[in-house]
Amino acid sequence: MSDGSASDGRRESLATLLGGRRGAVDASLPPVAFVGGWLAGGSSIGWGAVAAIAVSVMAGVIRTARGGKPRAVLISLAAVVVAALIAMYTGRPEDFFLPQLLSNVASALVWAASIVVRWPLLGVVVGLLLGQKTRWRADSDLVRAYSRASWVWVCQYTIRVVVFGALWVSGNVVALGVARVALSWPLVVATIAVSGWVLYRCLPDEHPGLRQPRPGCSSSAEAARSRGR
């Protein structure tokens, strides 16, 4: 029987470690503001851009006041400004969502590649959050579990690419705004929940948990050797 600390680490919620819901909610506000401004201004991209940037600034001020990192706030604001400039330059309001579409394409490819090279990004992120750096890679059970759970994140980005891509091609600005909300924090919460379930499901029952990587061979290999003795 494992001790209490190991059991707690074993069952620790991935949602607790990753969080992300507040940031996802904040990220969905500027696109909604853009669509609202665009509609209120009689299909004016300029009004949509002003509304999106204004809401992004307000959300950034609130996040900073609540202890958010200024760097993250500035990056979010810069992303909204770039999206607005692209839409104004092309004259196509749907192009406000183009950076989001492209970033999800890139994310899906990077996450998939990380699994192939056995550096699953979910493990990289959780390892950094737990202060483990790369020690988790010495535990083949963790590497395998993180790899399988990372495929859930690949699916998340792929879903966005398919939906955003179809709506962007059709030029449906309102539907893009709705999809941006529907596929932000609800999808993030679902992805964290499912990937957490997959992660713990793939770990052997006797594994001490995410906070206690076990260097060396996997427990399944050890069990096989024990049966062969």
UniProtKB/TrEMBL annotation:
<protein>
    <recommendedName>
        <fullName>DUF3159 domain-containing protein</fullName>
    </recommendedName>
</protein>
<keyword id="KW-0472">Membrane</keyword>
<keyword id="KW-0812">Transmembrane</keyword>
<dbReference type="Pfam" id="PF11361">
    <property type="entry name" value="DUF3159"/>
</dbReference>
<feature type="transmembrane region" description="Helical">
    <location>
        <begin position="183"/>
        <end position="203"/>
    </location>
</feature>
<feature type="transmembrane region" description="Helical">
    <location>
        <begin position="151"/>
        <end position="171"/>
    </location>
</feature>
<dbReference type="InterPro" id="IPR016566">
    <property type="entry name" value="UCP010219"/>
</dbReference>
<feature type="transmembrane region" description="Helical">
    <location>
        <begin position="109"/>
        <end position="130"/>
    </location>
</feature>
<feature type="transmembrane region" description="Helical">
    <location>
        <begin position="72"/>
        <end position="89"/>
    </location>
</feature>
<feature type="transmembrane region" description="Helical">
    <location>
        <begin position="38"/>
        <end position="60"/>
    </location>
</feature>
<keyword id="KW-1133">Transmembrane helix</keyword>
